[in-house]
Amino acid sequence: MGMVQKPPVWLDMDPGIDDAWAMALALAACDVRGISAVAGNVSLPHTFANAQKILRTLSVDDRPVLPGAIGPLLTPLMTAPAFHGVGGLADWGETTAAPVDPQDERVWSWWSTHRAEIQGIHLIATGPLTNLAISFLAFPALADIWGSITLMCGVMPGAQTDKAQEFNVYVDPHAADYVFHWGRRVRLVGIHVAHQALIPLEDLSRLGHYGKAGAMLSRVLPFYVQEARGEGGNPNAFPVDDVVAVASVVRPDLFQWRDMPLAVVREGPLRGTVVLSPIDVKRPPVQVATDIDVDGFRQWVWDTMEYYAEHPTT
Ligand code: RIB
Ligand code: CA
After folding, report:
1. Helices 241-250 and 17-29 meet at what angle, rounded to 10?
2. Are 142 and 62 in contact (CB under 8 A)?
3. What is the pLDDT of residue 160?
4. Which residue from 44, 129, 152, 165 has its CB within 8 A of the most atoms of ligand 1, so it is best to mutate?
5. Are 203 and 299 in contact (CB under 8 A)?
6. What is the whole-number distance in angstroms between the Cα of residue 20 and the centre of ligand 2?
7. Measured between alpha carbons, how far is residue 96 from residues 15, 99, 141, 204, 270 in Å?
8. How many CB atoms lie within 10 A of CB 303?
9. Distance (Å, rounded) from C-alpha 138 to C-alpha 125?
10. With contact defined as beta carbons under 8 Å apart, do 130 and 172 qualify?
11. What pLDDT was estimated at residue 4?
12. What's the 50 CA to ligand 1 centre distance in angstroms?
């Protein structure tokens, strides 16, 4: 069988423990052209430092890692230390992080000056959508350069789940609404499918076979699992939301998709709820993942992790 073509991707993340596993799988299954950090699970200094630390641990290849927004467009930053620890990677991340140098180039200007290099590649966003929204505001042409924009965020309107709001959209509802309005070839992988694709707790014992990636995940996952287990209604399993977003780019065949125009409730008690956009607003359709082949997803995760068994030096 011929070599499978690795999709060229850019990762915009708020690492974050499930972001860390998502990055590990993307580095194995995709051609990762660059990584950017946004404030979300923890503050920008931590997410930026964590993105660099995870990459340094998992890959010998150099690639651009850029900082992004220090907080949401209009709402105060809300972080998730209960799930990820104060440093964002349990006790593996730095609990103190230097502020990001205000002179450091931000990802939206890097994307603008390197447009030719990223034209047509696939963006995978697994944190609040602040960087993407700012890029569209600052350089409108950037809204149409990505081959696709896959968002780990939100809950599909009308989905039968116990949660109506998801963290990434709740933290920056204005950015999410902006991306649904201006983004092109946007795909949504929400927690209504991610919380079906749970990883059984006993699978944690497999991590020892996967070199440095397995060692890193063995170190950080237990902290996340203690808080996240049961999120999908099964106390013996845990969700890996950002991993599902990467899987949807590499293996879209594992998902069912439906097109629908989307909007976001930006204020009030329903803040962060994803709703259908009224037809007369003429928003482009978002391809929404409506279902997932859970066994196929799990098989993909462990088949992809084999990369680190075969490349222990990375
Ligand atoms: O709601 C889950 C999402 O919020 C994940 O991306 C997690 O890392 C947090 O960013
Ligand atoms: Ca995330």
Report:
1. 20
2. no
3. 84
4. 152
5. no
6. 9
7. 15, 9, 37, 28, 34
8. 12
9. 18
10. yes
11. 72
12. 15
Residue 115 CB-half CA count within 13 A: 12
Tell the burial category of 78 from Cβ atoms under 10 Å away from its Cβ (0-12, 13-18, 19+): middle
pLDDT at 231: 87
**Across residues 25-48, what is the average pLDDT?**
98
For residue 310, is pLDDT > 90? no
Predicted model pTM: 0.97
Task: Indicate which atom in ligand 1 lies nearest the CA of residue 15.
Answer: 8
Regarding the beta carbon of 152 and ligand 1, being less than 6 Å apart is answered yes
Between the CA of 307 and the centroid of ligand 1 the distance, in Å, is 25
From start to end of 17-67, where are the E strands?
A: 31-37, 65-67
The residue behind tokens 């845990």 is 238
Full DSSP string of 108-170: HHHHHHTHHHHTT-EEEE-S-SHHHHHHHHH-GGGGG--SEEEEE----TT---S-SB-HHHH
Q: Which pLDDT belongs to residue 314?
A: 54
Amino acid at 44: L
**Which pLDDT tens digit goes with each residue over 107-148?**
999 999 999 999 999 999 999 999 999 999 999 999 999 999
Indicate if the pLDDT at residue 2 is higher than 80: no
Ligand index nearest the alpha carbon of residue 227: 1
**CA gap 51, 104 in Å, rounded:** 15
The backbone torsions φ and ψ at residue 240, rounded to the nearest 5 degrees and listed phi first, read -130, 70
Label residue 295 exposed, middle or buried (CB < 10 Å: 0-12, 13-18, 19+): exposed
What are 265's two structure tokens?
């409730």
The pLDDT-based confidence of 232 (bands split at 50, 70, 90) is confident
Distance between CA atoms of residues 266 and 274, nearest Å: 9
